[in-house]
Design brief:
By secondary structure, the protein is mainly α. The protein contains 2 helices and no strands. Helix 1 runs parallel beside helix 2.
Length: about 90
């Protein structure tokens, strides 16, 4: 019984450290990255309307964020072409 006690205490300690220390840091990090992603979407859309606008392109490393960025820009292009056709 005592050989299981120490690993259980270690696992509980690791879980508590993650819950109380690393999780809030991860949430702040995610919020900052989402803010950058939103800015990049807005800049790309603005550049679609005004081609003379230039900026330093933000390259996303995360595949999920790349998909979100590309889908947002494609949807904007589709809406823009629908508006021009109407």
């Amino acid at each position: 019984m005592s050989e299981y006690l120490l690993p259980m205490i270690a696992l509980i300690t690791i879980f508590m450290m993650y819950t109380f220390m690393l999780r809030p840091i991860n949430k702040c990090h995610e919020a900052a990255l989402n803010h950058l992603l939103a800015k990049e979407i807005a800049r790309k859309m603005y550049q679609e309307i005004h081609p003379e606008f230039s900026y330093k392109v933000y390259h996303e490393d995360d595949l999920q964020r790349q998909i979100i960025l590309n889908n947002s820009v494609e949807e904007f292009r589709r809406l823009l072409s629908n508006k021009k056709n109407a």
